[in-house]
TrEMBL record, chain A:
Pfam entry (one): Proton_antipo_M
UniProt source species: Flavobacterium terrae
Localization annotation: Cell membrane; Endomembrane system; Membrane
Membrane topology according to the record: Multi-pass membrane protein
GO biological process terms, semicolon-separated: ATP synthesis coupled electron transport
Species lineage: Bacteria, Pseudomonadati, Bacteroidota, Flavobacteriia, Flavobacteriales
Spans traversing the lipid bilayer: 25-42, 62-79, 91-111, 149-170, 190-213, 225-243, 255-274, 286-305, 311-332, 353-380, 386-408, 429-451
Name of protein: NADH-quinone oxidoreductase subunit N
EC category name: translocase
GO molecular function: NADH dehydrogenase (quinone) (non-electrogenic) activity; NADH dehydrogenase (ubiquinone) activity; quinone binding
Domain of life of the native organism: Bacteria
Automatic annotation (TrEMBL), chain B:
Signal peptide bounds: none
GO MF entry, a single one: NADH dehydrogenase (quinone) (non-electrogenic) activity
Role: NDH-1 shuttles electrons from NADH, via FMN and iron-sulfur (Fe-S) centers, to quinones in the respiratory chain. The immediate electron acceptor for the enzyme in this species is believed to be ubiquinone. Couples the redox reaction to proton translocation (for every two electrons transferred, four hydrogen ions are translocated across the cytoplasmic membrane), and thus conserves the redox energy in a proton gradient. NDH-1 shuttles electrons from NADH, via FMN and iron-sulfur (Fe-S) centers, to quinones in the respiratory chain. The immediate electron acceptor for the enzyme in this species is believed to be a menaquinone. Couples the redox reaction to proton translocation (for every two electrons transferred, four hydrogen ions are translocated across the cytoplasmic membrane), and thus conserves the redox energy in a proton gradient.
Entry's family note: Belongs to the complex I subunit 4L family.
Quaternary organization: NDH-1 is composed of 14 different subunits. Subunits NuoA, H, J, K, L, M, N constitute the membrane sector of the complex.
Gene Ontology CC entries for this record: NADH dehydrogenase complex; plasma membrane
Keyword terms of this UniProt record: Cell membrane, Membrane, NAD, Quinone, Translocase, Transmembrane, Transmembrane helix, Transport
Protein known as: NADH-quinone oxidoreductase subunit K
Keyword Signal included in the entry's annotation: no
Superkingdom of the source species: Bacteria
Gene designation per UniProt: nuoK
Localization annotation: Cell membrane; Membrane
Amino acid sequence: MNTLIAISGLGILSLLAEIFNGRKAIVPITIIGLLAILGYNISPYNHLGTFYNNMMFVDKFSVAFTSLFIVVTIFLIALSHEFYKEQATKISDYVAIKVFLLAGAVAMVSFGNLSMFFLGIEVLSISLYVLAASNRLNLRSNEAGMKYFLMGSFASGIILFGICLLYGATGSFDLMNMYQITHSVNYPQWYYIGIIFLVIGMLFKIATVPFHFWAPDVYEGSPALTTATMSTLAKIVAMAALYKISILLIPTQTYSFQMIIVCVAIASMIVGNIMALRQNNVKRMFAFSGISHAGFMLMVLLILNNSAGVLLYYATAYAVAGIAFFAVVLYVTKGKDNETIDLFNGFGKTHPLLAAVLTASLLSMAGIPILSGFFAKFFLLNQVLLSGWTVLVIVAIISSIISVGYYFKIILAMYTKDSEKDLPNNIPFIYQVVAILALVINIGLGLYPSIVYNLLG
Amino acid sequence: MQNILQQIGIENYIYLSVILFCIGIFGVLYRRNAIIMFMSIEIMLNAVNLLFVAFSTFHQDAQGQVFVFFSMAVAAAEVAVGLAILVSIFRNLSSIDIDNLKNLKG
């Protein structure tokens, strides 16, 4: 609970720093503050339990995911100082919005009442609308912001309608009350209509296949750092929230619900990976790659007992690989209008270190052993197989093989083609630090998966 | 209030809200003017607010009405951001027709 208050306070602090002319110190102070909050969050002083009339419900699940979100946000904020160098006067706004986004994310995994969940998802989404359209002189950024705003608020409306129907069926917003009512004998069967609306809205936010059409455009048009935020932080937040909803609000998983999840997961993996093959823009390709990873993560909903650890591990592996990927992409695409794969030609010869990091993060997302991406897929598919969804596992492995094709397109461009023009060789120090740190975490998780995997039992 | 609700019936409130919600959805899907799309989203959210209040009276429980304040505040914040995006589009394009936004394709 105090974590959320501290994060909101930190956001206000970084807005105030602008008034007191503290722009230079803003990024270091925010990072130190977030590290302190992370330390508090995992320390025993952070009491588990319910707070404020069950508004907040803090348990091991929410603490673990909150820590993951804070780590990802620290990386993203560390990158922002260099990324927004040309708009140095606005750095406090960008940092503050990212911190508020984190506050929304924390509310979304530690809610005990659906109103808290709704506020969390809205704080997260509104921050992202602003960030997506933040490059206001660029028409592509405007268009991305507009599309994201329309689709996002459309999804919010659907989620709100779902919440309303759940309220109508149970007469309460409190998760504990709703849990009791739905586990008693007779409650209105149209409760499930509300669940369906809620799940559809969340699938919009995660960008899985029938509801994915906004993602490629928005990812391509937004400023690169915003794309990094959306694809790493926002996706795992929405996934964790959907997981929590399906555990607490769905009393018995019917066969038809499971079939819907299976179909959405299969469609996401196949469509995401096949569409990614024919993309020439790196950000657009990453959007489709994200759609396929969303399909993988959705499979967690089929194995609800003891699957929180699997989801946490997968989300961590995906997020750190995405951070390392974007730390390099930010450097390569700086000042360019377009983010085509040609920009990476000859990158392996001119910048061997960053090229190695990029290769490793791509291999991690493709699922090559030693890197954590492999073990994430391994644990997930193992659990799904034990639950008896053999067809799903076969499709997942085939789509994983397809994905190697487009990840290697970048790697081949880096190592086999010659560069047409030289990139300036002064790599920003912070990009290198973030890329290498993310890669170290990635490999560390691959070597010792139990650190994260066993956190949630 | 309870008497009025009993006379009219909760199901009529549900029908009305669902119809309004669908009007909002079709507005977002079929109209191409950005401002009208915003208005349609507002209709969707307000249809839900109406249903919240009706359920709140039906259950004799104030939580639903309090939730409406949250959702109204959130809708206002959302539209503020949306209009800001719209202004920056208008500055670049001198038009707010959604069909002009076709730079991102693939």
